[in-house]
Amino acid sequence: MTATRSAEFVNAVIKAYDVRGVVGEQLDAQFVSDVGASFARLMRSEGASRVVIGHDMRDSSPELAAAFAEGVTGQGLNVVHIGLASTDQLYFASGSLDCPGAMFTASHNPARYNGIKLCRAKALPVGQDTGLGIIKDEVVSGVPAFDGPRGAETEVDVLADYASFLRGLVELDDIRPLTIAVDAGNGMGGHTVPAVLGTLGQVKIEPLYFELDGSFPNHEANPLDPANLVDLQKLVRTTGADIGLAFDGDADRCFVVDEKGDPVSPSAITALVAERELAKEPGAVVIHNLITSHAVPELVHELGGTPVRTRVGHSFIKQEMATTGAVFGGEHSAHYYFRDFWGADSGMLAALHVLAALGEKDRPVSELMAAYDKYAASGEINSTVADAAERTLAVLEAFANRAVAIDRLDGVTVQLADDAWFNLRASNTEPLLRLNVEARTSAEVDALVTEILSIVRS
Description:
Helix content is about 35%, strand content about 20%. The protein has 15 helices and 21 strands. The strands form four sheets. A six-stranded mixed sheet has the order 1-5-4-2-3-6, with helices on both faces. Strands 16, 17, 18, 19, 20 and 21 form a six-stranded antiparallel sheet that branches. Strands 8-7-9-10-11 form a five-stranded mixed sheet, with helices on both faces. Strand 19 and strand 20 (about 420-425) form a beta hairpin. The radius of gyration is 22 Å and the shape is globular. It starts with 6 loop residues before the first helix and ends with a helix. Keywords: Isomerase, Magnesium, Metal-binding, Phosphoprotein. This is Phosphomannomutase/phosphoglucomutase.
C-alpha cells in the first residue's frame, strides 16, 4: 500500500482530463510513481500487459517518467520507453503498439509545471469518468500492493515510423515547392518537424527555436496567445515564406500564419481539413466543438457531410469520434482529430493537410483560406469573477428579448439575429468566465464583446 494523501491535494493535481501541477510542490517522484501504479492496476484489470511512456524536453520530465515506470513495473506490467516525444508521437506509439500510454508534458504551461496525459490502447482517452476518478481515489487512499513479479523495461525509437505513418496519410508527392517558416517554441516541434517535413524534397524549412529547452528562453510555447506568434510573423515576412507554422510545447497543436504574417483561424483550418476528408469519404461525420465558427458545420452540410456539435475538451471530442465514427474533428484551440490516427489529435497531421492543399494550387495561403473564413470572431476572452453563475444569469437577462435560441450544452450559447452568437463558459479550475463571440463583421463582434463584458465585469 502506498502513502495516503488529502483529497484536496490530489484533486488540485489530477484534473478532469490529465495530471498537471508545479514540480516539487505538487508533483514529485513518489506522487507520480503512485499514479503510475494505480494506472497500471486499472490497465491490468482491462487486460493490458504493458504501457508505453514518452516525455517532452522539460528538465523534470525524464525523472518523472522514470518514477512513473517504477510504479507501473511494480504492478507487474512491462514498460516501453520511447524517450523524447511529442504527444501525438506518444499516441502513435499507443496505437501502433496497441497498448496504453503515458505522456509526460505540461503542454504550453510555464517551465515549473509538468503533467501526464494518459490513454488506453489505440490512444483512447482516459478522463475523469473513464479512469482518472478511480486513479484519484486510489492515490488519496493508497494504491494496493501487487504480489506478483515486477514488469520489465525496454526502449524503442518510434520517431521514424511516426513520421512515415503521417506522411502516408497525406499525398504530398506532387505539391509545388514551398518555403515553410516553423516556430517550434523550443518545444517538441524541434524534434518532430525535421523528421516529418525535413525529408520532403519540395519543402524548404526556415527553422525558429528548434533547440529543445524546457525553460522556454524565447517565448512561451503557447501559440494561442498572439504575443507568442510575433517572432514567427516576422520570420515569414523577412524570408518571404509561403506559410508559417507554430507548435505548442508538446507539439500536438499547430497554428498557421499566412504569407503576410497574419494568423489563420483554427476554425478555418478545421473547415479546410473537413473538406479534404469529406472529398475522400462523402457523407461522413465531422465533429466540431460548440465555439468553433458556424462556418464549419455550414460547410459540412453543403458538402453532404454530417456535422456533430460537442462540448469543449478533447475527451468529449474523442468520445464522439468513437461513438459516431467521425472521419475528422476540430476545435477552436487548434486541436485536430483524425479517425485515421486512432481518433486522436495531431497538429502535425493537420499541418500536412494544409501544406497539401496549398501545394496543389498556385495561390497564397491568404486566398486559399478566405473561402473558409466567413465570419468575424472575438477569440476567447477570460474574465475573473466571484460568482460565474450569477454573472452568467445577468447576461442572459440582458439578452432575453434578443435571443433567438439558448442552449446549455457547455455553459450557455446564445443565438442572436443575423448569424451572431456568443458562448459564456465557466472554467472548471479557475474563477473565470470565458467569452466567445462570432458575427458577420468585426464591428458587430466588438459591440457585443463590449456590451457583454460590461455586465460580466460589473
